[in-house]
Write a structure and sequence with these properties.
Blueprint lengths: L2 H7 L21 H9 L1 E3 L6 E3 H10 L1 H16 L26 H11 L7 E2 L1 H4 L9 E2 L2 H8 L4 H4 L8 H15 L1
Antiparallel strand pairs: 1-2, 3-4
EC number: 2.3.2.27
Pathway: Protein modification; protein ubiquitination
Catalytic activity: S-ubiquitinyl-[E2 ubiquitin-conjugating enzyme]-L-cysteine + [acceptor protein]-L-lysine = [E2 ubiquitin-conjugating enzyme]-L-cysteine + N(6)-ubiquitinyl-[acceptor protein]-L-lysine
Length: about 180
């Protein structure tokens, strides 16, 4: 995750998982996992030296052969990009349509607007809807706050694997069916 996206997920008010957006609860250290990392051996892909996984990060930082190995991989991947990322809209983070704040996930944008813009009557374009294939990037919602409350209380991809080429009504039907099954 990039730092701004990760920070948005870890806000003290409501920290959420960066992948599924479920609420994070305070946890305890995974001592069994730590022990396994301490006891598992691996080999450096650069110099072929054997070591425990717990030492690999510090070794990799100082091993010039490992760094060359990584750079060769980066060069191989960046020679021919698989696709032009400019053709794919960002459907994970959104700017606030009222102010200059950026990088909100869907829940973060809803919370931000409820907290700071609940009395703002200016007609704005919903950045979430505008990013969808079925969204109109020029449509200004008459009551954006009501729209947020009704349409964006949850994310479609929480309940289904999103097919952004599908019709919005089909997506909503899938979400409703899955939510009824999960009860």
């Amino acid at each position: 995750f990039c730092t701004p996206c990760l920070q948005e997920c870890l806000k003290p008010k409501k920290p959420v998982c960066g992948v599924c957006r479920s609420t994070l609860s305070p946890g305890s250290r995974a001592l069994d996992l730590e022990k396994q990392i301490e006891m598992t051996e691996t080999t450096c892909n650069g110099c072929n030296k054997k070591m425990y996984l717990s030492k690999m990060r510090s070794h990799a930082a100082s091993c010039s052969k490992y760094q060359n190995y990584i750079m060769e991989g980066v060069k191989a991947v960046t020679k021919e990009p698989l696709h032009n990322t400019r053709n794919f809209p960002n459907r994970f983070t959104f700017p606030c349509p009222y102010c200059s704040e950026k990088n909100f996930d869907q829940e973060g944008l809803v919370e931000h607007c409820k907290t700071l813009h609940s009395m703002d009557a200016k007609q704005v374009v919903c950045p979430i809807c505008a990013s969808m294939p079925w969204g109109d990037p020029n449509y200004r919602s008459a009551n954006f706050m009501e729209h947020l409350q009704r349409r964006h209380r949850f994310s479609y991809d929480t309940f289904v694997v999103c097919d952004y080429d599908a019709d919005e009504d089909d997506m909503m039907a899938q979400v409703l069916m899955r939510s009824l099954r999960d009860k």
